[in-house]
């Protein structure tokens, strides 16, 4: 980040975060081997944005992304990871300063051995809470290949709305040009859905 951006915007959050069943914390270099254990599986690798060739390259890649990567633990075991990338909103030049660091893009991967139990939903809901309450962001987005039905359902379960469906706008390493989707949630929408 440049200009008046904080060098570590996620430092404003009191880590770790706890939900009913999970702990969400900042990733560490030592998490590379555990996360590789599920990230290299075909059912996960099929949908993630980058698939390193081997464990060593994954270690390097995770080290580069530690500032925006979180891990999800269940009973002390890492069962997934989350990405939160703080971004600027689009703005005209004269008011661009007010658009700095006001939104985030989210991403996730879950160990398939722990799928179907609501862990990803629970973790992403808590991440949304942190984005809107702890970080004071105004908007959160997430994108996926349209065929990634599990991610689309997750985005809908946490209250995000589909804002975009691009026709053959996303290049998949195996499938070629396929449809992509973009979901979003505004702070006022999230706050309006929280119990009083």
Question: How does this model look, in words?
Answer:
- This protein has 6 helices and 8 strands.
- It has 196 residues and is of the alpha+beta class.
- The chain has one domain: 3-Layer(aba) Sandwich (Aminopeptidase).
- Strands 1-2-3-4-5-6-8-7 form an 8-stranded mixed beta sheet, with helices on both faces.
- It is globular and about 45 Å long.
- The relative contact order is 0.14.
- The mean pLDDT is 95.
Strand order within the widest sheet? 1-2-3-4-5-6-8-7
- Identify the CATH class: Alpha Beta
Give the integer mean of the pLDDT values.
Answer: 95
The share of residues in helices is 25-40%
CATH topology: Aminopeptidase
- Tell me the radius of gyration: 17 Å
The helix-and-strand class reads alpha+beta
Number of helices: 6
Largest sheet entry: 8 strands, mixed
Percentage beta strand: 25-35%
Taken together, the total number of domains comes to: 1
CATH architecture title = 3-Layer(aba) Sandwich
Q: Encode the helix/strand succession as letters.
A: EEHHHEEEHEHEEH
Distance between the termini: 36 Å
Global geometry = globular
Pfam family, one: Acetyltransf_3
Domain N-acetyltransferase: 22-188
Protein name: GNAT family protein
InterPro entries: Acyl_CoA_acyltransferase, GNAT_dom, N-acetyltransferase
Characteristic terms for this protein:
single chain; 196 residues; Aminopeptidase; eight-stranded mixed sheet; globular
């Amino acid at each position: 980040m440049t200009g008046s951006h904080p060098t570590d915007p996620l430092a404003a959050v009191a880590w770790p975060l706890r939900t009913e069943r999970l702990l969400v914390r900042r990733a560490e270099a030592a998490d590379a081997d555990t996360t590789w254990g599920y990230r290299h599986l075909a059912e996960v690798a099929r949908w993630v944005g980058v698939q390193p060739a081997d464990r060593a390259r994954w270690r390097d890649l995770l080290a580069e992304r530690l500032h925006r990567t979180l891990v999800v633990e269940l009973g002390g075991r890492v069962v997934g990871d989350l990405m939160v990338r703080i971004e600027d909103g689009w703005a005209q030049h004269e008011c661009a300063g007010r658009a700095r660091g006001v939104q985030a893009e989210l991403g996730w991967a879950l160990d398939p051995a722990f799928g179907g139990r609501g862990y990803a939903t629970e973790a992403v809901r808590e991440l949304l809470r942190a984005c809107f309450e702890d970080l004071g962001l105004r908007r959160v987005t997430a994108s996926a290949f349209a065929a990634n039905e599990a991610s689309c359902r997750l985005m809908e379960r946490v209250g995000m709305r589909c804002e975009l469906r691009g026709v053959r706008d996303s290049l998949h390493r195996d499938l070629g040009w396929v449809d992509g989707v973009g979901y979003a949630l505004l702070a006022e929408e999230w706050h309006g859905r929280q119990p009083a």
